[in-house]
Amino acid sequence: MAHERLLGPGEWEVAPVDGGLSAVGTLAMEAAADLAARLRGVGLGGRPLGVEVTPKLKRGAVRAARTADARRRRDTTPGFTRPGARTDPEGKVSLTPEALALEIGQRWRGQRVIDAGCGVGGNTIGFARAGCAVTAIEQDPHRLALARHNARIYGVEERIRFLNGDARRVVPTLEADMLFVDPPWGVDWDRSHTAVADLPLLEDILEVFHGSGRFGYLVAKVPPSFDPDIIAGAVARAVFGEAPGDYRRVKFVLLEMQLSVTAVTTPR
Ligand SMILES: C[S@@+](CC[C@H](N)C(=O)[O-])C[C@H]1O[C@@H](n2cnc3c(N)ncnc32)[C@H](O)[C@@H]1O
């Protein structure tokens, strides 16, 4: 369960409250301070997470926990692990860590996937390594060249068609089993609440998806603070990191939507 991974060890009494969840548990003081530090400023599912500790934590414990949390955050799931893989500054911050990209890829093993806005290739390479036939679109030619270089490093260049251009124009001319989009979140994305309008590429790709009927599924990688309920039919899955610094952190949320097919029966 996602909440167990997020909250950590302890006996939690979880109950629905006001469209969300509340979790109540008893922890040692250090563990409570650690949890409060870890969840500070975090929003999930479109609303800020609130943490209340009773009795109130001592100032020293809060400070120590925040320092320890900041230190731990340095050890996060790595991006590319192969020597020679390259990124640019924007590609680096938005890169899906290799292990997570591979895990996402497995779900689409062997299928035709379009990556609309591939960056330096984190997800594209994950899909290709899982045996998908990938069409990777990127508007920045330098970043697309990095994606191609990285695909070569991972030995999957042959499974990828690289297209330089605006995905909003290119995608409607294509067809695939799954359309994937990891839209730019912006440098200062809101950690407590994100809406579709904050992710313009997602907004446009959603329109293409619903309008064309040529893609079986749409999968979008969105910030943890995104409210999935605003997209009808979207199934959301929180994805955690794998290293000590992000093991209990929601790195991003994957939204999966299936093309809705209306069955039409003709009377005889
Ligand atoms: C969040 S990054 C993708 C990161 C990628 N998933 C990875 O793991 O490396 C989004 C990318 O979309 C590109 N992009 C934004 N708008 C675009 C558009 N209209 N057409 C094509 N690419 C676009 C940006 O240049 C950026 O490289």
Provide a concise account of the structure shown:
It is built from nine helices and eleven strands. The protein has 268 residues and is α/β, with parallel strands linked by helices.
Distance between the termini: 49 Å
Hetero groups in this structure are:
S-adenosylmethionine
- Architecture per CATH nomenclature, i.e. the level-2 architecture of the largest domain: 3-Layer(aba) Sandwich
Instruction: Provide the structure class.
Output: alpha/beta
Mean pLDDT: 92
User: CATH H-level name of the largest domain... which superfamily?
Assistant: Vaccinia Virus protein VP39
H and E string: HEEHEEHHHEHEHEHEHEEE
Give the tally of β-strands: 11
Count structural domains.
2
Give me the secondary-structure topology.
Elements: H1 2-7, E1 13-17, E2 20-24, H2 29-38, E3 43-44, E4 47-48, H3 59-72, H4 89-94, H5 98-106, E5 112-116, H6 122-129, E6 133-138, H7 141-153, E7 160-164, H8 167-170, E8 176-181, H9 200-212, E9 215-222, E10 235-240, E11 250-258
Parallel strand pairs: 5-6, 5-8, 6-7, 8-9
Antiparallel strand pairs: 1-2, 3-4, 9-11, 10-11
Bound molecules: S-adenosylmethionine.
Q: How would you explain this protein's 3D organization?
A:
The protein has 268 residues and is an alpha/beta fold. The protein has two domains: 2-72, no CATH class; 89-258, 3-Layer(aba) Sandwich (Rossmann fold), CATH 3.40.50.150. Helix content is 31%, strand content 22%. The chain contains nine helices and eleven strands. The strands form three sheets. It has a seven-stranded mixed sheet with strand order 7-6-5-8-9-11-10, with helices on both faces. The protein has a two-stranded antiparallel ribbon with strand order 1-2. A two-stranded antiparallel ribbon has the order 3-4. α9 links the parallel β8 (176-181) and β9. The longest helix is centred in the first third of the chain and has 14 residues, at 59-72. The mean pLDDT is 92. Bound molecules: S-adenosylmethionine. S-adenosylmethionine binds next to α4, α6, β6 and α8.
